[in-house]
Fold:
Amino acid sequence: MSLLAQLKILVVDDTTTSRLLLRDALETIGFRNISVAANGEEAMKMMTTSPCHFIISDMNMPKMDGLQLLKAVRTHKVFARTPFMILTGNADRNVLEEGRKLGLNNYLNKPFTPEDLKKALEAVVGRLQ
Structure:
């Protein structure tokens, strides 16, 4: 079974359009097991009931932003090592530095293409077949 078929991806974004675009890009790459959450709190609830293998989160969200979600994920024993990528419209150096301290695996600037997303994912998990 290919990595694409095995990986369960969690997409976290407060904007419906962004969630749909990201899901479409992941499906274009070949992923089929994709869950979505509208914010960090919802994502944490989903992770505790049905953990995913990879989290892709928007940076700017109400309630719990991408870095707060990353911190919450990293402090949870069961899924602390889950690969985590942040999407941002503004790759602020301080945000990325803080993310790296928290264990951020990668980031991707918006807007992006499916090929950009694939390269960012492959930088973390290796070649996707």
